[in-house]
Design goal:
The chain is α/β, with parallel strands linked by helices and 327 residues long. 36% of the residues lie in helices and 19% in strands. It folds into 2 domains: 145 residues, 3-Layer(aba) Sandwich (D-Maltodextrin-Binding Protein, domain 2), CATH 3.40.190.10; 139 residues, D-Maltodextrin-Binding Protein, domain 2 (3-Layer(aba) Sandwich), CATH 3.40.190.
């Protein structure tokens, strides 16, 4: 009996030692586990035309990453994009800048090969008037004549407006706007695409965003302006004009029949610490934009895309390149 008890006690002691040893091994394993990915808020600047598109992208990416990566926007115009990701603006450097035009040669001088950039999608610029205005179709020559002050009244373009005064009221985006550059290049009046070099006697009210432009035309029965097709969708109190006989649409932009179109582009900051969470987050966001989920978000927000059927899923990109962003 004593021998049996002795064997039992020794056996239990052995099990206890094994248990302690295993516990130590588990603790050691947990110490070697990589730290969790600390959430990152990416800061964007640049074009106001892209606002709906990048809002949709930011919301979708936050969902897919379990809010490990979110996007905070500060959109005031394409002119801020390259400055924001290089020198910075208002005491802050931005992670990604968006433009509703191409990057200018003068802007490229501040960029390095680490400032990755490219195209996100396409968009169109649409001439707009108040919804009460019977004017519905315009062309390159007429718009140029209106903004040059050669056609001053709505009668000059064949439109009858009730009331004694039918002077055309001109509205434009601010200097540096990508929407402005696309519009004035498209109508053949490049002299004012980047600067307010209006002809003598021509008065143009400047608007700082697509939203401001649409609100101004909504309140101006005699006004004419222009805005992004993406922004125009769902707007009330204004209407878009056909241009050179073609109504702006996704199909017309893709097939090239609508001529007032442009790219939405991006550029990223390039001075991150290598393999930092912020560098990983911004590169992942850029890759996400061209995935099936990213392109679907862009299209749903009014951006004009291509390659949706061939695009990779975000899950396949995430698993192969960004394992830390698993949801």
């Amino acid at each position: 009996m004593k021998n049996s008890l002795r064997i039992l006690v020794l056996g239990l002691a052995g099990l206890a030692m094994v248990g302690c040893g295993n516990q130590g091994e588990n603790n050691g394993g947990s110490e070697n586990t990589e730290p969790a990915f600390a959430p990152v808020t990416l800061y964007s600047c640049g074009s106001t035309s892209v606002d709906k598109v990048i809002t949709a992208l930011g919301n979708k990416f936050a969902d897919l990453t379990g809010r490990k990566v979110t996007l905070e926007k500060d959109q005031h115009g394409s002119g801020d994009a390259t400055t924001g990701v290089t020198a910075g603006k208002n005491g802050k450097k931005y992670d990604i800048g968006f433009l509703s035009r191409e990057i200018k040669d003068s802007e490229k001088q501040a960029l390095s090969d680490k400032n990755l950039n490219g195209r996100m999608c396409k968009d169109a610029v649409v001439p707009i008037v108040n919804e009460s205005n019977p004017y519905s179709a315009t062309d390159k020559a007429t718009l140029a004549a209106i903004y040059k002050g050669e056609k001053k009244t709505w009668k000059d373009v064949g439109v009858t407006i009730q009331g004694e005064n039918d002077d055309i009221q001109l509205y434009s985006r601010e200097a540096g706007s990508g929407t402005r550059e696309c519009f004035f290049e498209g109508i053949g009046y490049s002299a004012v695409k980047a600067e307010d070099k209006w002809n003598d006697g021509v008065v143009v009210a400047s608007q700082s965003s697509n939203g401001d432009m649409m609100n101004a035309i909504k309140d101006a029965p005699l006004g004419i302006g222009y805005c992004s097709l993406d922004s125009l969708a769902g707007a009330k109190g204004i209407k878009g004009l056909s241009f050179e006989g073609v109504v702006a649409s996704e199909k017309a932009v893709v097939d090239g029949s609508y001529l007032l179109s442009r790219n939405f582009n991006y550029v990223i900051r390039g001075d991150y610490e290598a393999n930092s969470n912020r560098e990983i987050a911004v590169k992942a966001f850029v890759d996400f934009m061209s995935t099936r989920e990213g392109l679907t978000a862009i299209k749903g927000a009014g951006g004009i895309i291509s390659g949706l059927e061939e695009a990779q899923s975000w899950s396949s990109v995430q698993e192969s390149k960004y394992p830390a962003l698993a949801n």
